[in-house]
Design brief:
The chain is mainly α. It is about 55% helix and about 5% strand. The chain is built from 3 helices and 2 strands; from the N terminus they run αβαβα. The protein has a two-stranded antiparallel sheet. The two termini are about 20 Å apart.
């Protein structure tokens, strides 16, 4: 057995969550000119508890309307700068998760092949 394969499973779940968040942010940006569209976000269980193994990361999150944003005359409250900032942050998180997974898999590959 590879050892803590659950770490790979947890990182994979975090990648799935990042992908879901990306889809929500993309939807917000796509609807920037849709009258009465409300900015949405997605909430998952506490990430720290997921990484520590206390909770199993869920694939599904809770989508909700973001409150406290200023709406324009047409009722739309999407802030392009806010969404682009969120997308950049999310992309960096996704990249970090993929690098950690690649590193772990590289370690496993080296152990299996006997190289260091």
């Amino acid at each position: 057995m590879i050892g803590k394969s659950s770490q790979i499973d947890q990182l994979s779940a975090l990648l799935n969550q990042s992908q879901a968040k990306h889809e929500i942010i993309s939807s917000n940006l796509a609807n920037v000119n849709t009258p009465n569209f409300q900015t949405k976000d997605i909430r998952f269980d506490d990430v720290l508890s997921q990484i520590s193994g206390i909770a199993t990361p869920g694939k599904d999150g809770k989508i909700y309307n973001v409150e406290g944003l200023v709406a324009r005359q047409d009722g739309n409250n999407v802030d392009v700068d806010r969404e682009l900032s969120n997308m950049t942050k999310n992309a960096l998180e996704y990249q970090t998760y993929t690098q950690i997974i690649a590193s772990k898999l590289g370690t496993y590959r080296a152990a299996i092949t006997g190289r260091s």
